[in-house]
Amino acid sequence: MRNRSGMSLFGRDLAIDLGTATTLVHQRGHGIVLDEPTVVALEARSGQLVAAGQSAYDMVGRTPSTVRTHRPLRDGVITNSETTQAMLRNFVDRVTSSRLIRPRMVVCVPSGVTAVERKTIEDAAIHCGARQVFVLEEAMAAAIGADLPVHESTASMVIDIGGGTTDIAIISLGGIVNTRSVRGGGQQIDEAIIAGVRHAHDLLLGDTSAEKIKQAVAAATPLDVPLSTRIRGRDLSTGLPRTISLSSAEVGDMIEPVMASLIDAVLAVLDLCPPELSGDLLDGGAVLTGGGALLLGLDRRLQRELGLNVRVVPEPRHAVIRGAGACVDDFSALQRVLVTAPTW
Fold first, then answer.
1. 113 contacts: CB under 8 Å, gap ≥ 6
2. Signed CA dihedral, 94, 100, 101, 104: sign only
3. What pLDDT digit, counting tens, does each position of 224-265 carry?
4. Is the entire prediction scored with pTM above 0.85?
5. Could you report how far apart the first and last alpha carbons of the chain are, in Å?
6. How many CB atoms lie within 10 A of CB 130?
7. Nearest Cα to 326, choosing from 134, 127, 87, 100?
8. Are 138 and 106 in contact (CB under 8 A)?
9. Contact between 59 and 41 (Cβ < 8 Å)
10. CA distance 158 to 284
11. Cα dihedral sign for 86, 89, 93, 99?
């Protein structure tokens, strides 16, 4: 379908990976056009949007009393509908040139969301200008983005570790055979580091500092060459700034409960896998996607615990949006993995 200028009316169709930590947008024919933190800055009194994305993230912990920063999603679920709609509208306006043509949207959701939570996400997409909304489970999107043979009878396993949720799924014949969604991902690791540093060193860290520690030295298994980093925080006894040194071994102990919970969730999915598909997994193994897949040694830890070959896909942060983008780029081939939301 084309307008008078010859441009396809579907040329602006979008795929959105609305994550707890990061939001990514894929535009049909253009690839990933937006990759920014899921953070907003609001006027304290009116609640009006001041900034969204990277510009709002840069304000975290630095705003005056008249402005507050906020993450509108928690554990992959929208906690504030109006703020999320304002943020999405800001993002969509940045990547589209006109509001005259309303795009179709593919929106990714965690596997474990309730019907009410899913409808909240669909409504947010409708209110930011979508003509029609298609819902895609993040585990399926990650599998497509990882180039797994999702439509074949051979089983594929994906472990998608996002900012707020971890989705584990076994996929065969274009559908999810067994899945489990655990509330908590990279954000839960950050919280474990904050709590651990507070308990061990009586030092208060912010979210940004915890994320830096995670990226620098956090590891899921002991490293052959230990790492260390220095971090600043506020001494809870004196109220003064203080700098400490943290080792990868110490941080590893802090995040071990999160690792144990992740492994238990993966084992629970494998326990319910049909025997015919279990054999396929021994041959094909599992893939790690999402930002959490970048945690040092995680693939080796899972491989040891599960007895399966585990590999990290290239650019794991983009696996979900690559899969959702593939659905936007080729609706006819991949529409059967999508769920259509009501058109308003």
1. 76, 77, 121, 181
2. positive
3. 999 999 999 999 999 999 999 999 999 999 999 999 999 999
4. yes
5. 21
6. 26
7. 134
8. no
9. yes
10. 11
11. negative
